[in-house]
Amino acid sequence: MVELEREIARARRSEQPLVLAFLDVDGLKAINDAGGHAAGDRTLLDVADACRAKLRSHDLVIRYGGDEFVCVLSGLDLSAAAKRFALVNAALAQAPDPGSVTIGLAQLRPADSPRELLARADSALYAERQP
């Protein structure tokens, strides 16, 4: 959470947009069940590698827990961030063991606390999961 607070403060000082992405690895439980935890671990590494390859070097990529990642993209709006994450999913689809992530995006608002921003991204992720 310290990194997120730092990025929010930097975005406010520089008056630049900031987007927080909440990523959920699709089907990780099924991957673990079918191929064991080693297969699940490879999938998590594939997601981290795809994020590092398709996001910018200064974007934060943090494993949040289980099958979830949080990414912080400074200087981008929602549309530009969505395009970056489309590249992440395209890279995952081309991996030796193809995968994907579902993404919830939230752009920083003037009065947002880190928790509020994270909660909005989590809600956006939940909305993406709905049929």
How would you explain this protein's 3D organization?
This protein has a single domain, classed as Alpha-Beta Plaits. The chain is 55% helix and 21% strand. It is built from four helices and four strands, in the order αβαββαβα. Strands 2-3-1-4 form a four-stranded antiparallel β-sheet, with helices on both faces. β2 and β3 form a beta hairpin. α2 (28-54) crosses α3 (78-93). The mean pLDDT is 95.
Rounded average pLDDT: 95
Instruction: Outline the low-pLDDT stretches.
Output: none
In terms of DSSP E residues, the strand content is 15-25%
CATH domain topology: Alpha-Beta Plaits
* N→C terminal distance: 31 Å
Tally of structural domains? 1
In short:
By secondary structure, this protein is an alpha+beta fold.
Secondary-structure blueprint of this entry?
Elements: H1 2-14, E1 18-25, H2 28-54, E2 60-65, E3 68-74, H3 78-93, E4 101-107, H4 114-129
Antiparallel strand pairs: 1-3, 1-4, 2-3
Which key phrases capture this entry?
131 residues; alpha+beta; Alpha-Beta Plaits; four-stranded antiparallel beta sheet
